[in-house]
DNA sequence: ATCATATTGACAGTATACTGATTATCAGTG
DNA sequence: CACTGATAATCAGTATACTGTCAATATGAT
């Protein structure tokens, strides 16, 4: 058998697999029914009220065909709202609801716990190094995926959030 | 918006996302139609002829409900065979076909290229460090996922491949 | 031998992710 | 204003992954 332990791709899959399991464990135990993806989306919606789905996808690097279903489930749970844009009839603008804001606030400790649990085998320095190297590799590979992270404007203010690099 | 760049879970998702895209890119360009998961499974079957699906799942840390479909597709492509076990009527034993062996041999350069592409933003030392830290974090978190990596015996020889730690 | 327990593989159901295509709409050009 | 090209969202189809459940079978303790 090839030595998968030396293939970054295999390690990537295992690490992500564990990350999702840990998130479900911590967050589920705290009484919430949110997936990692739903949490990230809701968090981005809270911070950028009125953004459209394409911008949301770019902000957290989702595929644009995936985001529709994610938002569907957030809306169905009463955590977000989706409405037609008044300025672009193609776009749907997103807002967080009071319930969504409340959920985010109360879920934070569990999310924090999950992040720490995920690197529980590493010292603090090692965890820092791991994240630094992951970020570096991700930045270099950003354009290689169908869903690259993108700079964004808030649909509401048309003001650039992140400066062009 | 919460700072996802400091959440190992988010970085895990992005890194895996890019890993899959890179694999598809390199391997697809080389003319093959194998996913990362199918490649790993086929490779493990080659190295452990006659293993059953549960053992396969443990070897490469798949969920056992996922492995069935993966093997289905390998069989359908003519790369592997699945037969009833003669010693355990519950189990299905797996074998690689000549075509499967041939595919693995010819696909290797593309897989190698993908692994390098994935860490193209890092120096060789950094890539080594990244893999070391990922392995360390994964080892500590192994039991947290539904599909932990397990030691295995070959169904054929009943000989332990990896010693109990 | 028998019974409690564990294991193997399968199923239904849900949630990510992707490819590739389509529709509706917008924005810039001539 | 008409036309071209880009963009927002959706759809159909495929492949991972997981939860929870089940039937068939194996194994270990008594």
Q: What is the rounded distance between the termini of chain A?
A: 43 Å
Could you state the oligomeric state of the chains shown? homodimer
Overall tally of domains of chain A: 1
Largest inter-chain contact set: A-B, 63 and 63 residues
Instruction: Give the helices and strands of chain A as they follow along the chain.
Output: HHHHEEHH
Radius of gyration of chain A, in angstroms, nearest whole number = 17 Å
CATH topology of chain A: Arc Repressor Mutant, subunit A
Task: Report strand % of chain A.
Answer: 5-15%
State the helicity of chain A in percent bands.
55-70%
- Low-confidence stretches of chain A are 152-165
What's the CATH superfamily of chain A, by name? Winged helix-like DNA-binding domain superfamily/Winged helix DNA-binding domain
Folded structure, characterized:
- 2 copies of one chain form a homodimer.
- With 165 residues, the first copy, chain A, is mainly alpha-helical.
- The radius of gyration of chain A is 17 Å and the shape is globular.
- In chain A, strand 1 and strand 2 (92-96) form a beta hairpin.
- Chain A has helices at 8-29, 36-47, 53-60, 64-76, 98-118, 124-141, and strands at 80-84, 92-96.
- The first copy, chain A, is built from 6 helices and 2 strands; from the N terminus they run ααααββαα.
- The model of chain A is unreliable at 152-165 (pLDDT under 50).
- In chain A, helix 2 crosses helix 4 (64-76).
- In chain A, strands 1-2 form a two-stranded antiparallel sheet.
- Chains A and B meet through helix 1, helix 2, helix 5 and helix 6 of A and helix 1, helix 2, helix 5 and helix 6 of B.
- The structure holds a DNA duplex (30 and 30 nucleotides).
